[in-house]
Amino acid sequence: MSQTTADSRTVSILAFPGKGNVYVDCLYPPFEALGISVREGIFAGRWLLSNVHRGDYVHIHWPSFLYSSTDRAKSLRAFALFRFLIALIRWRGARLMWTIHNLYPHDRCVMPQMDIWVRRLLVKHANVFLIHGPDAEQAVLQEFPAVAGRTVLIKHGNWIGHYPNTIGRDEARTRLGLAKDDFVFLFAGLCKPYKNLQLLISEFEKLPGRPVLVIAGAFQDPAYQAAIQAAAERSSARILLRPGFVSQADMQIYMRACDVVVAPYAEVLTSGTAILALSFGRPVVAPAVGYLRTVIVEGCGVLYDPKSSDGLRSALCAARNASFDEERVLAEAAKHTWQETAEIVAHKLKQDSRSR
Questions:
Q1: What confidence tens digit (pLDDT) does each residue in 91-140 have?
Q2: Kind of pairing, strands 95-99 and 56-60?
Q3: Cβ proximity of 297 and 291 under 8 Å
Q4: CB 293 within 8 Å of CB 135
Q5: Any long-range contacts for 173-180 (C-beta under 8 Å, 24+ apart)?
């Protein structure tokens, strides 16, 4: 048994969440392989009292999932429980770890001030802040300077082999009704206002020629879906709107059919969609912010200045005229592994355990 494994057996992670999300489903198995126990946390008073102990690390990913609600009273009760969790961690001698996926939640709480209160608590009391790369860290330190000295840089692991990838380009295009010689841009994922679909449609329809834009993903807000549907129908451009949840099994249809994936987000720190695209060998058009600057290197897509009025359109044109090598993109994606992230974090937790 390696020394790292032996030292890590005393470390236990209580994860919020620990499963049910493609990110955490891939993140935690390598921790278990290193001898670190990972348990799914339950956000309830009795469970917390019985299960939070000295030496544990309480790992929070998206804190708003623990307190946010459309109901004001429910949010207040959940916020009170969140404060209890923080107090319990300190009382029991456990430690708090937060992976900063976003600076603030994309869907703000019914009481937006609560999003700020929670982050103040985390910034004050967390022992470790996991951040995806140096560019995202820069944004975090600008917003939360007090976390300096407690950050650990990690990678967002790739999804090569995790999603089915068994069909060819021609079959994928046939299923979507696309021609072999079409140039296809793809937006895939949950469709929300911060993802800038209206801007994408507006800039796409200004492109020369007859490229195709495919928008595939579920809408949570019927009014927003209606607005995007209307914009697509008004446009003279070739826009294929496929509303509805895209399963892991079906994602390959869209990824294999497209030439370029577009992630034109107005707010972003880390993008799982960009990693997913790279994992299929697809280049990405995205704003030059956060982790996107780290993973979309030369030959893997086109980054643009989100403050530029024609930044997105220029990037779409550049991507269409570029020649991308699928194997090169896959090779870059393969550099970002869940195993490396687990080893980095395990080393940090081992160091902290020794210093107690």
A1: 999 999 999 999 999 888 889 999 999 999 999 999 999 999 999 999 99
A2: parallel
A3: no
A4: yes
A5: 173/257, 175/253, 175/257, 176/214, 176/240, 176/242, 176/253, 176/254, 176/257, 177/240, 178/212, 178/214, 178/240, 178/257
User: From residue 139, how far is each of 63, 143, 257 by CA, in Å?
Assistant: 18, 6, 34
Residue 298 DSSP label = T
* Distance separating alpha carbons of residues 305 and 328, to the nearest angstrom: 24
Residue type, 168: G
Q: CA 141 to CA 193: how far, in whole Å?
A: 26
Name the amino acid, one letter, at 146.
A
Average pLDDT over residues 42-47: 92
Q: What is the rounded distance in angstroms from the CA atom of residue 188 to the CA atom of residue 200? A: 13
The CATH number corresponding to 169-333 among 3.40.50.2000, 3.40.50.300, 3.65.10.10, 3.40.1160.10 equals 3.40.50.2000
- pLDDT digit string (tens) for 49-62? 999 999 899 999 99
Q: What are the tokens at 36?
A: 């670190």
DSSP string, 37-84: EEEE---SHHHHHHH--TTEEEEES-THHHH--SSHHHHHHHHHHHHH
Distance CA 253, CA 271 (A): 20
Helix then strand count (H, E) for the chain reads: 16, 12
Which pair of tokens denotes residue 320? Answer: 């269409």
Cα angle 279, 282, 286; round to 5: 100
DSSP 193-213: GGG-HHHHHHHHTTSSS--EE
pTM of the predicted structure, to 2 decimals: 0.93
**What is the widest separation between alpha-carbon atoms in the chain?**
65
The domain locations on the chain are 3-155+337-355, 169-333
Q: What is the CATH code of the structural domain delimited by 3-155+337-355?
A: 3.40.50.2000
pLDDT of res. 327: 97
Indicate the residue type of 189: G
